Fold:
Amino acid sequence: MDIPALRAFLIEAFPQVAQDFTVERVDDAGIRVRMNVGERHLRPGGTVSGPSIFALADVGVYLLILSRLGPVALAVTTNCSIDFMRKPAAATDLVAEARLLKLGRVLAVGDVLIHSEGTEVPVARASLTYSIPPR
Amino acid sequence: MDIPALRAFLIEAFPQVAQDFTVERVDDAGIRVRMNVGERHLRPGGTVSGPSIFALADVGVYLLILSRLGPVALAVTTNCSIDFMRKPAAATDLVAEARLLKLGRVLAVGDVLIHSEGTEVPVARASLTYSIPPR
Amino acid sequence: MDIPALRAFLIEAFPQVAQDFTVERVDDAGIRVRMNVGERHLRPGGTVSGPSIFALADVGVYLLILSRLGPVALAVTTNCSIDFMRKPAAATDLVAEARLLKLGRVLAVGDVLIHSEGTEVPVARASLTYSIPPR
Amino acid sequence: MDIPALRAFLIEAFPQVAQDFTVERVDDAGIRVRMNVGERHLRPGGTVSGPSIFALADVGVYLLILSRLGPVALAVTTNCSIDFMRKPAAATDLVAEARLLKLGRVLAVGDVLIHSEGTEVPVARASLTYSIPPR
Structure:
């Protein structure tokens, strides 16, 4: 699946959050997904909330897996380990760069680095495992 | 901090999400927090979303730490490892039972089991680490 | 599998480390496994090494799964998240208390608390996922 | 600390395991550490054991932190999340490539990819957090 196909899938399958995310790149190396940060993602002081950062990590690796398997695959997140390392820039978009480490018959594993738009230092890192349903 | 104090803190510090959570018990053994599941927490089919389950785990252990340290403590989540083990019951409240495993000078560690109201089998488990700021 | 069966399995399948572990209890609630701490598990100062603590966590949940599935099951560890919370007592046995949170068709999840013999405060906690091979 | 300094530190501080590891590269990008796989690291069938893979991940990130902070720093592992993704090649050295994601005042975070010598696909990945003692 390419960027338009991932976008269409997101709107179809997750209409509540589809507008929160923009796939900026998907290729052999991985995927880059932007979180379009809005009021609903923020905590007092303008910090992006932990659950929003988690959501971006999950969406990033999930879409990367779908880009390999196609839209029929209903992968389910089974584990996520996430490190919150720095405070995100206030009221600024977040960018996730994810890569796939394993795409097996029953399990897929990917990891992701997240940074605030305009900086390079990572705000968070996460690794996620997905259960792949039998065809 | 007891239940009314935790409630007041939540409303003051996290007004956007305070109404999502109800502290049902806090004592020496730990804390029980209910997520008042609404439309905004659901995915198509009525499943509670992963980020919402993450939010409940985080709030549960965070409030448990505050109940020990008092409201001045601005603890920050540094790590979360979460296992999603079963699909939550559709459109049903979730209940988190958390306990504190370490409350050190600079780090606190807790873990949490989450189940759907009315069942005993766990939907998710998580362990979380918080950085405690110097007094 | 009961305690003698687990012991026989350990000697048969993992002869190099079988003598390091003693199953003290296995029942509906979970399993208790002791690590018979020796020179080879220690770091300078008498602290039990991190890899040894990891090994105890892994063996504990693994044997618990085997006690449910029987010896034919070649479960494989796919993920472990472990928190090291306190320094173990010097040159003292470690005791792991593990419980099973999920025993599915393809994945099993358990968690474990580890303490030094003679104390109650946890040295470490871990959660582990295993892939269960098709029958 | 450069490679000879790290080597000297390892022999001094961890004499039991120093001969298991060889630092092959340390620079601004990170560190590469080889595990000199021997009988004691193997399980029946020639697979490198889980605790040995954990040890390599831990040593890799630990030495990387020391290369930045110098030998006085007694960093302590507080968390490790590790994914075992493929079976290592039988009786073959393992190579870890680690990078540092955060080096803060009280916490450091790094992650690591591990593969069997002679192949590129990862056997395991891990992320680790260390507590840095006050100076």
